[in-house]
Specification:
This protein is of the alpha+beta class. The chain is about 40% helix and about 20% strand. Helix 5 (about 95-145) packs antiparallel against helix 8, helix 6 (about 150-155) packs antiparallel against helix 7 (about 165-180) and helix 10 (about 235-250) crosses helix 11 (about 270-285). The radius of gyration is 38 Å and the shape is elongated.
């Protein structure tokens, strides 16, 4: 096409109203109730008393337009300034090679600096360990010096002294030891206190700091911050198109029974803006979402409380991060408030794990079960975390209603749990795709009616982080 357009323009179109005149213009305006003349020659324009050049475009411009150009006046829009703005956008001279090099350089330098800082901190901690070890030797040396134990041995072992001479020498030494009893006691007590201070190790704070660092790294984004005067129409057009498309999707989606979760709009979770628009459109159209994230927190149960402490933190956007100190003992936490019988709930979790053997369970338990020190619950679903995937393991919420036993990829989906008391319904699925759905195996009507229910999480891996990112009360599931 570009080859054709690059050739000299030559087109033989004659005016049917003026013999010998070539057609030059195309009409862009229609007048209702009139027989509109759409093609004009120079004589046509002279004879038209209402002729305005803004209402016409030359045939030559149309024919010479190529796919890399914006044709002014076409298509017909509410405001032709949009065409100028689009033309400005596509002609901005961005040096993408330079930008790419800058981004690569930034992350390369960041990686080097982070590694250097980590090495520095590690060396400091290892030096502290050496100080502790050396200080223990100092305590032992001080004890030996204070105790005069070698002198006692020498007196007892001496072959040159008889028993009476040994008694006299020992008596002198004993009086010296007794005389310095208070002084020596204070010296040793101070050294013991100092040893306790420098030997105190707190794993909770570094673990929490590690999670915070990882979360902060995820916030690095070169395209996030835009000056207000740099916002352009191209972005507005694109977002409007997305909203319109999603709006049509919402309109066309029928309301169905709570036990049949709807097919979500197909969108990659990596496209954050699309997901946000989807949620925004859904919320505005239905008006049923009540965000309860700020009302929820988790409490660690008595199960292995002293052996494996959980780190439960409110982080950005009121999200809740849950992890454990070590990987030796299972432990669990549960919501600080009961889930109400009159409500329908949606919970969405982000799962991150670098442990190939990580396992966790999520489900419901009642207050009687929480009071026990063992994990006793009727409704749960247990997962294995392998190769960035969540794989169904066992539990009473493990009936595969749709899909397979691989729930999702952790880096591109959220684990969604839906709960409805009125319909005795609980479902676990991948969000937003909803390709896989797991339901409870046995009827749960009696369970829902008889107990005050809490949401619980059961885990042990220190390399597994479970983050509650969204929590809603809803009038109905759509």
């Amino acid at each position: 096409m570009q080859e054709i357009c690059s050739q000299p323009f030559k087109l033989d179109l004659k005016c049917p109203h003026h013999q010998g005149y070539d057609l030059i213009y195309v009409q862009l305006k229609l007048i209702d109730g009139q027989d509109n003349k759409l093609f004009y020659c120079s004589e046509c324009s002279d004879e038209d008393a209402d002729y305005k050049s803004t209402n016409f475009i030359t045939i030559q411009k149309i024919m010479q337009q190529n796919q890399n150009q914006i044709l002014q006046k076409w298509p017909i829009l509410n405001d032709n300034k949009l065409l100028n703005q689009i033309n400005d956008v596509i002609n901005i001279q961005n040096n993408f090679d330079e930008i790419t090099e800058h981004i690569n350089s930034y992350f390369k330098n960041l990686l080097v600096q982070v590694i250097e800082k980590i090495d520095e901190q590690k060396e400091k901690m290892l030096l502290q360990i050496e100080k502790i070890k050396n200080y223990k030797q100092d305590i032992l040396k001080q004890y030996i010096d204070i105790s005069k134990i070698e002198e006692v041995k020498s007196i007892i072992q001496s072959q040159d002294l008889d028993i009476e001479q040994k008694k006299k020498k020992y008596l002198v030494l004993l009086k010296q030891i007794i005389k310095k009893k208070d002084e020596n006691s204070q010296i040793l007590q101070n050294m013991i206190q100092q040893a306790k201070q420098i030997s105190k190790i707190d794993c909770d704070i570094p673990q929490a700091q590690k999670m915070q660092i990882l979360q902060d790294l995820e916030k690095i984004n070169f395209f996030q911050l835009q000056k207000k005067n740099e916002c352009n129409t191209n972005k507005n057009i694109e977002e409007s198109a997305k909203v319109e498309m999603l709006d049509q999707s919402v309109k066309s989606e029928p309301k169905i029974d709570v036990q049949d979760t709807p097919k979500q709009f197909s969108a990659s979770s990596n496209d954050h803006s699309k997901l946000e628009i989807q949620k925004s459109v859904s919320n505005q159209k239905q008006g049923i979402y009540k965000n309860i994230l700020d009302e929820i927190n988790f409490i660690q149960s008595k199960l292995n409380l002293k052996l494996n402490k959980m780190l439960i933190q409110k982080i950005s956007n009121k999200e809740i991060s849950i992890s454990t100190i070590n990987s030796s003992y299972f432990t669990q936490c549960y919501t600080n408030t009961n889930l109400q019988h009159s409500k329908n709930y949606i919970f969405r979790f982000n799962i991150k794990s670098t442990d190939p053997m990580a396992q966790f369970a999520i489900g419901l338990e009642n207050e009687n079960q929480i009071s026990n020190k063992a994990l006793i619950c009727d409704l749960y679903c247990k997962f294995d975390c392998k190769d960035n995937q969540l794989i169904l393991n066992e539990g009473k919420i493990s009936k595969i209603a749709q899909g397979s036993n691989t729930l999702m990829k952790c880096d591109s989906s959220l684990l969604e749990l839906r709960l409805s008391y009125d319909k005795y319904f609980i479902q676990i699925s991948d969000y937003p795709e909803t390709k896989n759905k797991y339901l409870h195996i046995e009827p749960t009507k009696k369970y829902f009616q008889n107990h005050s229910i809490k949401l619980f999480i059961y885990t042990k891996s220190s390399q597994l982080c479970i983050t509650l990112k969204e929590a809603y009360e809803v009038d109905q599931f759509i």
